[in-house]
Amino acid sequence: MSLSCNDAQPCSLTRFLIEEQRAGHIEPDLRLLIEVVARACKRISIAVGKGALGGVLGEAGLPGAASMNVQGEAQKKLDVIANDVLMEANAWGGHLAGLASEEMDHSQPIPDEFPRGRYLLLFDPLDGSSNIDVNVSVGTIFSVLPYAKQGQDPVDADYLQPGTAQLAAGYCVYGPQTTLVLTVGHGTHAFTLDREVGSFVLTTRNIRIPEQTAEFAVNMSNQRHWQPPMQAYVGDLLAGKTGPRGKDFNMRWVASMVADVHRIMTRGGIFSYPLDAKNEAKGGKLRLMYEANPMAFLVEQAGGAATTGRQRMLEVRPADLHQRVPVFLGSKGEVEEAGRYHREHDATAG
Ligand SMILES: O=P(O)(O)OC[C@H]1O[C@](O)(COP(=O)(O)O)[C@@H](O)[C@@H]1O
Ligand SMILES: [Mg+2]
Ligand SMILES: [Mg+2]
Predict the structure, then answer these.
(1) Which CATH number fits domain 215-348: 3.20.20.120, 1.10.10.10, 3.40.630.30, 3.40.190.80?
(2) What is the pTM of this model?
(3) Residues near 296 by Cβ (< 8 Å), separated by ≥ 6?
């Protein structure tokens, strides 16, 4: 029996990963690590799907005393559940040296009593938390980095590798369908969860993001806080056909990065969360290690581009585990266009 995926043979994630291993694209233990993460995503998908019936909606913590994460944000029950699922699944997995989560102050080495591996896993366990209680798509984002110091506990500094060092990245969107989108550095591929069978099935091999687009995603309510190049860029998008861009643009904003990026993976577009007067002191809103870098890797592997507006995202040198950055990603032509507004502004501002 042939193990290779073909049109007649739906390809499970397991089978796909074995093929990637045979092609020399991934090590066997990275394959197994991705399987563990995918299993955890299935469990999170089930928890998300239960909603009010499962008692998983609402804030974590006691009434009147919301539990806060390291980012100073109130945690939802599902933020905590998703974090626990990923932690527990991976502690036992045997493929990791340590983990870091958007929800935890510091990275955690795999305890001594468990087998240790050669990878570091970083994740945003539940992205789009503000959408949990209103039954709108949320997701999980993850990134895998190498760890070479065998026999030593990894510390936060070991995670501060640029996005170009990522060995794998992915997200799982919990929407009308649960879809896992994955790269191991050889294209970006989508797997849809067959809920009856309980396995992820390859549904799009080699996603290609259209280079040009007429759709942008940004939280327009922040417009008055933006810096001049962003004001100028979006001003020209809004001017439409009669403006300098010469075409009308549509706008979408789900407020779950995973869902917004998934739309861009499907039909193109540009997603941006720029610097503004509210987030400037923190460096931006979105997190480099848990959100921007894995998404940038996935988007580049799908033929798109990802920048801070001024620099390729994957080349940013991280200084802090919870570092925040401005984000522009999606259709290559449009991301370059946004970068041009920043360059021209910086040149004239001296
Ligand atoms: O509240 P805003 O400004 O619309 O921001 C939404 C953005 O914040 C995020 O929800 C941040 O992610 P978390 O829910 O993981 O904190 C992104 O998913 C989304 O793009
Ligand atoms: Mg997030
Ligand atoms: Mg989150």
Answers:
(1) 3.40.190.80
(2) 0.95
(3) 163, 306, 312, 313, 314, 329
